[in-house]
Design brief:
The complex is a heterodimer.
Chain A lengths: L1 E5 L7 H14 L4 E5 L7 H5 L2 E15 L11 H5 L5 E4 L2 E4 L9 H5 L5 E16 L2 E8 L7 H14 L5 E5 L6 H7 L4 E6 L3 H17 L3 E8 L5 H8 L4 E6 L2 H8 L4 H4 L1 H22 L4
Parallel strand pairs in A: 1-8, 1-9, 2-7, 2-8, 9-10, 10-11
Antiparallel strand pairs in A: 3-6, 4-5, 6-7
Chain B lengths: L1 E6 L7 H9 L6 E4 L8 H4 L2 E16 L9 H5 L21 H5 L5 E16 L2 E8 L6 H18 L4 E5 L6 H7 L4 E6 L3 H16 L4 E8 L3 H13 L4 E6 L3 H7 L4 H4 L4 H15 L4
Parallel strand pairs in B: 1-6, 1-7, 2-5, 2-6, 7-8, 8-9
Antiparallel strand pairs in B: 3-4, 4-5
Helix pairs in contact in B: 5-6
């Protein structure tokens, strides 16, 4: 089963839920593939402290112009077709702005002279690590690189290859509700939306709910820092008949443990029970969805 | 006129609460909510919309089933897996590159303008606000950020406003890079947790890469004094002035619930600290 942990708002506790669930399954003796899809700001490794193995450079193809073979200013087919303005005519040759390139390959297909070769731009890195039964993968976006989704795709592919059939696959998604999140959610059986009981938490939860309904991925909600705010999230969940998978109570002790990179299941027995109960609720949610009653 | 963007790397450190609170000090300004994925500033500023425009960005492919012979050339050529087995475009995957249109021997694939969401101009108690709403699952948030910022800058020039405050996104990718273009300074909102320290350092690497000066606020103090010290040391070593520290305080949540800024909700508590931070910021940006 593939479970994605997401939220519209940042900082609601996605990584807390994802890493504690991973460690819960680990202790149950299950094999876990853990994937930190937040390639812009990955944090899960602070909590799961994997032993790292090999790091790979991940790239996206970009054009490399053979100016000798290029037909010159009269042609400019590549320039007129590129929707991303990544190619321009500069003085006497085609110039490629690699950073703007989406790597679609259209220029290469279109060039009548075969003057466009493939080079690459570095997106960032992917790295693999282990912690007992957990195989951990994460990506790290190169500083200055704008496009996270292609790196997420690469890291997901690497994780699938190197950990093909775990008992549980957990994906810690980036915040938001646009392309990096859509890329991360792809292929998941179930999503856990983590929110907090505040107006910001509720507003961004609604955005995430709309996204998951559109993608037709079954989901439930975990309320983190329960008790810190108001009752509006609970009322919303009831009104929308959304499953509340569980709540993690607001506590300064938990915030302090989090700040140091500690797992709640390591430190607090009461959180251990709550995580176990969330895991059970997720399983029920997946079974219900399989039975056609999402 | 100066432009300041509020960013943090990690989400949930208090960008929006601090942006809203700072907006309440000093002369009228223009506000831009550039966290277009998960915009929350409106929940505090209660904007009254005076302008709403459709936002179009990039293109989206369409395949005409009447013309399509299901030859599969488009699907083989598409590098984004945006063509389904039934030869329909998967909207969430389509980058709008036009490869399918180019390779289709039947001319069944065509490209169309893509509506991504709405952009608004509104009035608030602290000045004009430009904000946006992306369609569900839409991409191009970077381009929407650029569009929101351009509108905010134009309005600030028309109004002779001295400052545009931009509420930025988490992360270091496309929307954040778009929010940094030609700003005068970044306000980094950090918190003393291992995750947030790591993330603010990465976003600071990004601002350094683009040569943008930074100032910092350390929020949620008291949770981890050691990391607070580490943040201060890092800022000092990186020549990032720390404008102030804010204690971990339930007033942030209560202010949200009351639809107020934290300075309005707690004028004699956190509000006083924010007033001092505002003075330092105004001095730093030479607004007086």
């Amino acid at each position: 089963m593939q479970i994605a942990i997401a939220s519209g708002k940042g900082g609601t506790g996605k990584t807390t839920v994802a890493t504690n669930l991973a460690e819960y399954y680990n202790r149950q003796g299950q094999t876990v593939s853990f994937l930190d899809c937040d390639v812009e700001e990955p944090n899960a490794h602070f909590f799961l402290t994997p032993e790292w193995s090999d790091e790979l450079k991940e790239t996206v193809p970009v054009p490399d112009i053979d100016t000798e073979a290029c037909l010159g200013e009269e042609c400019r087919k590549c320039i007129s077709l590129c929707r991303f303005k990544a190619l321009i005519w500069m003085v006497d040759s085609v110039l490629a702005f690699s950073e703007l390139c989406h790597g679609c390959g259209l220029c290469e297909l279109a060039c009548p002279a075969g003057a466009i070769l493939e080079s690459y731009r570095e997106l960032g890195t992917s790295v693999c690590g282990t912690r007992e039964n957990i195989i951990f993968h994460r990506g790290l976006l190169r500083i200055g690189e704008a496009m996270a989704p292609p790196l997420i795709k690469k890291v997901k592919a690497r994780s699938l290859k190197e950990s093909p059939s775990p008992d549980v696959r957990i994906l810690d998604c980036p915040p938001g509700a646009t392309c990096p999140v859509v890329e991360s959610l792809e292929g998941s059986d179930f999503a856990v939306l983590v929110t907090e009981p505040t107006p910001f938490g509720l507003n961004d939860l609604k955005i995430a709910v709309n996204l998951l309904r559109k993608l037709e991925i079954p989901f439930g909600v975990v309320v983190n820092r329960a008790g810190m705010g108001d009752k509006q999230v609970e009322q919303y969940l009831q009104k929308e008949s959304i499953t509340l998978l569980g709540s993690l109570p607001h506590s300064l002790a938990a915030a302090s443990a989090y700040s140091q990179g500690q797992l709640l299941v390591d430190v607090f027995p009461e959180y251990r029970e709550e995580i176990a109960s969330i895991a059970k609720a997720i399983e029920e949610g997946i079974n219900a969805a399989r039975g056609g009653a999402a | 006129m100066k432009q300041l963007v509020v960013i943090s790397g990690k989400g949930g450190t208090g960008k929006t609460s601090i942006t809203a609170a700072l907006a309440g000090f000093g002369p009228k300004k223009v506000l831009a909510d550039c966290d277009v994925d998960a915009a929350d500033l409106h929940l505090i500023l209660h904007p009254k919309k005076i302008e709403s425009v459709d936002f179009y960005s990039g293109q989206l492919a369409a395949i005409d089933p009447e013309q399509c012979t299901q030859c599969g050339i488009c699907a083989d050529s598409c590098r984004f897996d945006a063509i389904s087995h039934d030869f329909e475009i998967i909207k969430e995957h389509c980058e709008g590159c036009g490869v399918c249109e180019f390779v289709c021997p039947q001319k069944a694939a065509s490209m169309h303008e893509r509506k991504c969401g709405y952009q608004y101009v509104s009035e608030t108690r602290f000045g004009t606000m430009v904000h946006a709403e992306l369609g569900v699952g839409e991409e191009n948030s970077g381009k929407l950020v650029t569009s929101v910022r351009r509108r905010a800058k134009d309005i600030a020039e028309q109004q002779s406003a001295k400052l545009v405050i931009v509420d930025g996104s988490p992360g270091v990718g496309c929307p954040v890079i778009a929010s940094l273009a030609d700003v005068d300074a970044c306000l980094l909102v950090a918190e003393p947790t291992v995750s947030a320290v790591h993330d603010v350092k990465r976003v600071h690497q990004l601002t350094t890469h683009f040569k943008i000066p930074c100032v910092a606020i350390i929020n949620k103090c008291g949770v981890n004094p050691e990391l607070e010290k580490e943040l201060k040391n890092y800022c000092e070593a990186s020549e990032v002035p720390v404008l102030g520290s804010l204690n971990y305080d339930t007033a942030f949540t209560q202010a949200q619930i009351h639809g107020q800024t934290v300075a309005e909700y707690a004028p004699t508590g956190i509000g006083e600290d924010i007033a001092i931070i505002w003075e330092r910021l105004a001095e730093y940006l030479d607004l007086n």
